[in-house]
Each structure stands twice: as structure tokens, then as C-alpha cells.
Design brief:
The protein has 2 helices and 4 strands. By secondary structure, the protein is α+β, with helices and mostly antiparallel strands. The chain has one domain. The strands form 2 sheets. A two-stranded antiparallel ribbon has the order 1-2. The chain has a two-stranded antiparallel ribbon with strand order 3-4. Strand 3 and strand 4 form a beta hairpin. It is elongated. The structure holds zinc ion. The site of zinc ion has 8 residues, from loops.
Length: 87
């Protein structure tokens, strides 16, 4: 009884150290540059980054304004191409 409890505790602790022992930096999800673990924003592409995941990659924070601007710019580009070349 006492032995199995101690074993379970040791197992859990070992898993934690395996997951985070080798992670000293996180990678930007946009440009894959290495960032400090406590970085809130990529200094290269200015993407807002979240916490590091177990693969050493920063989680991307959803940026709805950027999504909408991207869609608008694509729609206007396609509209412009239609107007300029297919008229
Ligand atoms: Zn970046």
C-alpha cells in the first residue's frame, strides 16, 4: 500500500521533468524564431504569443482583427484583379 503510493508519486514527478527539462525557449508559431519562455510578443513578426506547449512551440493567441483584415484585403485584391484585367 505505502510502496505503491510512493511509486505513483515518483512517476508523476518524473513525467513533469521530462516534459519541461529541455525547453528553454519557445518558437514563434508564425516565423519559428526562438523566443524567451516569458515573451508575450514575437520581436521579429510582432505576433502575440501565448504559453509554450509541450513541443516547445508558443500557442498562438486568436487575433480576430487580423483575421478580418486579412479576409478584407484578399476580397479587395480579387475584386481589383477582376476589375483591372477581366473587364
Ligand atoms: Zn514571429
Amino acid at each position: 500500500m505505502r510502496g505503491s503510493m510512493a511509486l505513483a508519486g515518483r512517476k508523476q514527478k518524473k513525467k513533469e521533468t521530462v516534459d519541461f527539462a529541455n525547453i528553454l525557449v519557445k518558437r514563434c508559431p508564425e516565423c519559428f524564431i526562438n523566443l524567451p519562455l516569458d515573451a508575450k510578443e514575437c520581436f521579429s513578426c510582432h505576433t502575440r504569443v501565448g504559453r509554450v506547449d509541450k513541443f516547445g512551440r508558443a500557442r498562438k493567441k486568436p487575433n480576430w482583427i487580423a483575421y478580418i483584415l486579412c479576409i478584407i484585403s484578399w476580397v479587395s485584391l480579387i475584386a481589383y484583379i477582376n476589375w483591372a484585367f477581366l473587364n
